[in-house]
Specification:
Strand order of the largest sheet: 1-7-2-6-5
CATH class: Mainly Beta
Structural class: mainly beta
Distance between the termini: 19 Å
Largest sheet: 5 strands, mixed
Strand content: 35-45%
């Protein structure tokens, strides 16, 4: 993502947005001034409400596929640096298998897989 290798990414087909932590944005060498200031309300699984600081569009890479994806930026500490939600899942045409912890998606060179751990 943006020529940076990001660890601890959650692929969440229950999330209606791609979410990035503010600390991850800064670790990538980007600043708050690089994002569009746009506050959006996000509602979590247990009903908690978070307001975003803004959004940023960044290039993402999965084996064989480059995409531009929009991320909502939030200033919280989570176990994950990024949450890839349904926008990314649909744009990449991913078939996620939670049982096998694998993402399967088409590319111009055939079907690719990303295995989770």
């Amino acid at each position: 993502m943006e020529n940076c290798l990001i660890n601890r990414i959650l692929v969440d087909n229950g999330s209606a947005a791609n979410i990035m932590m503010l600390s991850t944005l800064k670790q990538m060498g980007l600043e708050e001034s690089d994002m569009i200031k746009k506050s959006t309300t996000l509602v979590g699984f247990s009903g908690e409400i978070k307001r975003t600081l803004g959004e940023i569009t960044l290039p993402t890479y999965a084996p064989g596929v480059n995409l531009l994806e929009k991320f909502c930026i939030i200033d919280v500490d989570l176990t994950y640096n990024i949450i890839m939600g349904r926008p990314w899942i649909h744009n990449l045409k991913v078939v996620p298998s939670t049982y096998d912890q694998v993402l399967i998606f088409p590319t111009p060179w055939g079907v690719q897989e990303i295995r989770g751990d």
